[in-house]
Amino acid sequence: MRSNEAAFTFVFVMSLFNVIVCKTSFVKDQRTDFVFPPVDQQIIAGIPEGHLRPLGWQKKPDGKVREEKDPITSQTFHLRYVKNSRPVVLRGLMKYASVAEKWEEDSYLKQKYGKLNVTIAVKKEVFNSEPKRNKRKMLFKKFLLDYMYENWYLSSTVHEDMMAELPLPDILSCGSYKERLTEAELWMSSGGTSSLLHSHGDHNLHCALDGRKDFILIDPKFKDVFKFQETYPNSGSGHSPMDMEMINAFKHPGISQTPWIWSTLWHGDCIFVPAGYLHQVRAYGRSISFTVQFAPVVDFEPSGCKEESKNKRRKKGKKDKEDDEQGGEEEKDVTEEQKLSLSDVEFVWAYSNGERHLKQKKLVPSALRRILSILLRDGDKLYQNQFKEFYEDVISEYADRPSADEIFHIMTPNDNRNYVSRDEINALAESRLQNVCDVFNKRFERVRDEL
Known about the structure:
The longest helix has 21 residues. Helix 9 crosses helix 13. It is globular and about 70 Å long. Helix content is 27%, strand content 23%. It contains 13 helices and 19 strands. The chain has two domains: 232 residues, Cupin (Jelly Rolls, Sandwich); 91 residues. The strands form four sheets. Strands 1, 2, 3, 4, 5, 6, 7, 8, 10, 13, 14 and 15 form a twelve-stranded mixed beta sheet that branches. Strands 9-12-11 form a three-stranded antiparallel beta sheet, with no helix packed on it. The N and C termini lie far apart (59 Å). Strand 16 and strand 17 form a beta hairpin. By secondary structure, the chain is an alpha+beta fold.
């Protein structure tokens, strides 16, 4: 009897030891019932409203982001929102995607994708200082094992092996949008995370698969209020170095005068954030979402897009209702099998083997010309610093590479030019483009040799 008691005590002690060793904190708060936007707070004489509180407490919002509750076509999406750089929430756009149900279970993700490398962000909060974030790579199964305890969140370009399960939103599946996709990113956390106030150089469609996400959106004309730092001049991307969880209202009084709009995303909802638009994101509960980025375009080409029916463009009248009752022509729903996934389209960037890389590993002149036109976005000139940023992203780890300036000037009429125009890119001889391709392709040849 005593030996059994001793064995039980040993097992119990070892179990406690394993728990203490393996987990350094408690399971994160999974509630999603937080109040947002903030309600009125008690005003203290001499203290500015929202002092040392998160962004949004300093001023009441100017309203909600406009919403579309019914499906809209790509053309309508472009004319109402993209063309005018106007944010919009598309309610329920991903609501019936089967991936949302499957990805509700960590066990499914672990079994199917556990051996993949992913990139995670580690947020270290320092009192009275801006949050510091660093990135690390780890196996997805390791992340899934500990993300409910650790201060981690997944922030990674979608792995190539995951792309087939993630649907491409219908409004991006045709025309110019389909041809100008730059990157898809995956986000996952146990809640309680908040981003810096930031912007992207490309348009961004952010879709929630699980959990809750709150968005604060601010017109880019107010970026100076937040000491905004661009990634490089005229990039459209960047961030504010300020701590968005603890705004010093004495030091930054302009925030209390800055208008902002907001929205809350739930399962199946998507939000369109235009290129350059400032936004901050907060996640609650177990949260999974993905984003699709696409480059701005001068003129939208609706090739392959469905036209919006007259019945959808105007309110139905008596005759319309009679036509419906008599079996008038209706659009047929597209089954999920017919819908495009992220693996069915061409992105500029992809992720595999623990690294982000060009989707097309061996460049040819036509592919390079396409990428250069995407880098142009809706501008008329591709500047040297824009190309340099792209070049460094692709082959930065190789010390013996030619300089970005040297490669850029292969495409310009002379070395004194710091830009190449849209017309010049379209007219570039294939021999010049091939010379640039050769530089990029050497990087991939070296990777293959190392493998």
